[in-house]
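User: Hi! I'm working on a homework problem where we have to compare a predicted structure to a textbook description. Could you give me the structure for the chain below?
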Amino acid sequence: MQILQAARRGKSAEARKGPPLTDHDIYLFREGTHGRLYDAMGCHLAADGARFRVWAPNAARVSVIGDFNRWDVGVNALQPRAEGSGIWDAFVPGVAHGNAYKFRIVGAERGYEIDKADPFARYAEAPPLTASRAWSLDYEWGDREWMSGRRARNALDAPMSIYEMHLGSWRRNAEGRMPTYRDIAAPLAAYLRETGFTHVEFLPITEHPFYGSWGYQTTGYFAPTARYGTPQDFMFLVDTLHQQGIGVILDWVPSHFPTDAHGLAYFDGTHLFEHADPRQGFHPEWNSSIFNYGRNEVRAFLLSSGLFWLDKYHIDGLRVDAVASMLYLDYARKEGEWIPNRYGGKENLDAILFLRTLNESVYRDHPDVQVFAEESTSWPMVSRPVYVGGLGFGLKWNMGWMHDTLDYLRHDPIHRKFHHDRLTFSIWYAFSENFVLPLSHDEVVHGKGSLIGKMPGDSWRQFANLRLLYGYMWAHPGKKLLFMGGEFGQRREWTHDDALEWWVLDQPEHAGVKRWVADLNAFYRASPALYEVDFDRAGFEWIDNNDAEASVLSFLRKSRAGTPLIVVCNFTPLPRHNYIVGAPHGGFWRERLNSDAGIYGGSGIGNLGGVEAAPVSAQGRSHSLALTLPPLAVLFLEPAPA
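Assistant: Happy to help. Predicted C-alpha cells:
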C-alpha cells in the first residue's frame, strides 16, 4: 500500500509539472500524423512553474530565457530527450502567467547562436516585440447552442453567405486606433445580423511581424495576434458571433512563412522547417520560405496548427491560402528553377499527402466544419473525398467565375454582346467542384481599385452594374463571399492602414447598395432553391443562355423539392418591354426582388408585383412570362402560393 501511495504521489507530482509526451506521441510525431502536438509542445504552465519543450534536432544546446530568469542564458538549460526525437525538454520553476520568453538556440555549426520565439506559443508580445508569452487558454464558453447545431449551418446544402474582412481596418476610433477583439465583437455581430451574412471570414489573425502582410506572413501558428488583444479576447469575439448565429472562418497559411530571425526559418542552425535548396524552399513571389512537407515532423506541426483553431477556438472553417503554390513545384518559377518529383513531374507529392491528411483529420474530428481551398488552377477533384482520389477539401474558391464575371462587367454594355460567353462558361464546370463564388480582398488592392470602380459608365450606371453583379452572384450556383466595403459600394481601394469609408452611407446610392445586399441575403436564406442544390445540375436549368444580342440571361434555380425560381438578368442600360421568358408552369409569378427598385437607388422600372404566366410556349416550355426588364438589373420571380 505504501508503495502504491508513493507511486501515486510521484505521478501526481509529475503531472503538476506539465503534460506528458509519451512514446506514442513521439511515434505519431515522427510519422507526421500527430494532430495535437500543442498539448505537449511549447510552454505549459503548472502550479509552480512551466514545462518547456521545443523541437531542435540539430542544435548543440538549447535553453529558455525570459522574465522569470532575467533573460540569463545560463540558468535554465533544456535537455535532449533520450529517445532521439530531437525534442528538448525542461521544467522551469517560477514561471508565471504572462511572462515573456524565447529559446536560445546554439547550433552545431560554430558561431550560430540565436533567440527564437516558441513555434507552439499560444500568445506573443505585441509587434514589433517578438518574444512568446507563457499563457493558459482557460475560457468559459457560452456558445453551446451554436456548437450543438452548427453541422446544419455549415453543411453543403445550407445557405452560406460569407463576409470577408480584415479585422484591423474594418472600423477605427476617432484617433485612428485599431479595434480590439472585444471592442469589435458586439458591433460586428450586430452589423452581420443587419446585413444578413451567415459567416464571417477573417484574414489571418495568426501572429505576424509585418502588419502590411495582412497576416499572410505567419510566425505564430498557434497564437492570435496580440495587436488586438489576448487569446481570451479572441475567444470572446468568436463566442459573441456564435451566440448571434454567425459562423467564423479563419484564413490559414500553411503554404509559406517569413524569414524573420525570431521565426521558423533556419530554426536550429539548419533548414529545419523549410527546404534547404532554394528551388524548393524559397518562394519567389512572396520572398518567404516554403515548408518542407516531405519532413514528417513538419507535417505534424502544420496539422496540429490547423486542428488547434478548431479544438481550442471553436472555429467553423479554415480557408487554406495559396493551395496552388503548394501543389505545383514549378509555381512562379521558370524552367530550371525547380526540381521535379521522383516521377519527373511538377506535382508536389509531399504537399498532396499533407493536404489529404489535413482534410481527413479535420472531417474525422470535426465533421461539422468546412475546409476551403483557395486554389486557382484546374487541379482535379480539389473538393472531392480522399477515398475517391480527391484532395478532400469541402469547398473550393471559384477563381474562374470571379475573373470572367468581372472581365465581362468591365466592358461597356454596347460591347457586352461580343463577350456573352464570359458569363455562360462558368456553368459548364460549375458542378465539377463544391464552389464558393468570391469577390475577395485580392480584387480591391494593389492598384485594382474598388469593385464599383471597375464598373463602366456614369455614377448611376456604376451603381446599377454593381447591384446587378451582386444579384447575378447570389443567383448563380455556389456559396457567396464578399469582402468588406463591397456591401455598400466603397469607392476607395482598400487599405489596411485606414478604416472603411463608412461616411459614404450618408449618400442614398451607397445606402441603397447596402440595403440590396441585406435583402439579397434575407431572400437567399429564405429560398432553398438558391442554396440546397448548389453542387448538382439538378439545381440549375437554363431558360435562355443564347440571347447575346440583348445581353440577357434567364435561368431556373430549383430546390430539392423542385420548387423553382426564375432569374432574369439584363446586362444593358436599355429597359426591355414585353420580353418573353419561358416558365415551367402557369399561374402568377411574384416579382420578389428587383435590383432597379427605387429603394436600392434604381429607376423603379418593374412588373408591378408580378406577372401571370400565359399558356404560350417559349424556350421549350409550355408557359411564358411577358416581362418588363429594368435597365442593368436582375429580377427574381417565384410562383405565388396556390
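For your comparison, note the following. The longest helix spans residues 508-526. Confidence is low (pLDDT under 50) at residues 1-12. Good luck with the assignment!
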